[in-house]
Write a structure and sequence with these properties.
The chain has 178 residues and is of the alpha/beta class. Helices cover 37% and strands 14% of the residues. The protein has one domain (8-132): Rossmann fold (3-Layer(aba) Sandwich), CATH 3.40.50. It has helices at 16-28, 40-49, 69-77, 82-85, 98-106, 119-132, 168-173, and strands spanning 8-12, 33-37, 55-60, 89-93, 111-114. It has a five-stranded parallel beta sheet, sandwiched between helices. Helix 1 (16-28) crosses helix 6 (119-132) and helix 2 (40-49) runs parallel beside helix 3 (69-77). The longest helix has 14 residues, at 119-132. It is globular, with a radius of gyration of 22 Å. The termini are far apart.
């Protein structure tokens, strides 16, 4: 495998909160260069017009507002440039049907991940797809040790014996002030 500079990833996801979560997961895995697109047209611009980006992998949602993720992947596979045509693509979707998976697989994807996804599985799938193309993924940053110091002035929760269970039905229906 050749040592290259930090891989640039493209995340194509129309939901801003999900897109931000995916980027945060990738960054926690050491991927600092992440470009995002909210639809297929924007993704195509980054892939084919913005040559300075050097995108090396695309994470694609299949349900997008202006064109499906499958259409985007087909456009990538029809590219004239071998570099773009062979771009690793990992699908990240909520679609669980077999026909959708088969359609994506026919387009030569490198991964098919179901939402919701764990950050570790996402980073692992991206790293494997890059390695399969001879691209060295980054080393994830060392995790800081969690501070597990307990505050000693916090009272422990009451035991079951201390709870007044006789009024449980009325307590469940009306909220208690904090």
């Amino acid at each position: 495998m050749s040592k290259t500079r930090m891989p640039c990833l493209l995340v194509v996801e129309d939901e801003p909160a999900v897109r931000a979560l995916i980027v945060a997961c990738l960054k926690s895995g050491g991927y600092d260069k992440v470009v995002t697109a909210g639809n297929a047209e924007e993704a195509l611009f980054y892939l084919f017009k913005d040559t300075g980006l050097n995108i090396q992998l695309a994470l694609v949602d299949l349900v997008l507002p202006n064109a499906s993720g499958l259409t985007l992947i087909r456009r990538i596979r029809e590219a004239k440039s071998a570099k773009r045509k062979n771009l690793p693509v990992v699908v990240l979707t909520g679609r669980t049907d077999t026909d959708t998976y088969k359609a994506a697989a026919r387009r030569g994807i490198q991964g098919y991940l179901m939402k919701p996804i764990s950050p570790a599985i996402l980073v692992e799938a991206v790293s494997k797809a890059l390695i399969s193309r001879g691209i060295v993924p980054p080393t994830p940053p060392a995790r800081k040790a969690l501070d597990v110091t307990l505050a000693l002035d916090v009272a422990p929760p009451p035991s079951l014996d201390e709870l007044d269970m006789s009024s449980s039905s009325s307590a469940e229906s009306s909220p208690k002030p904090a």
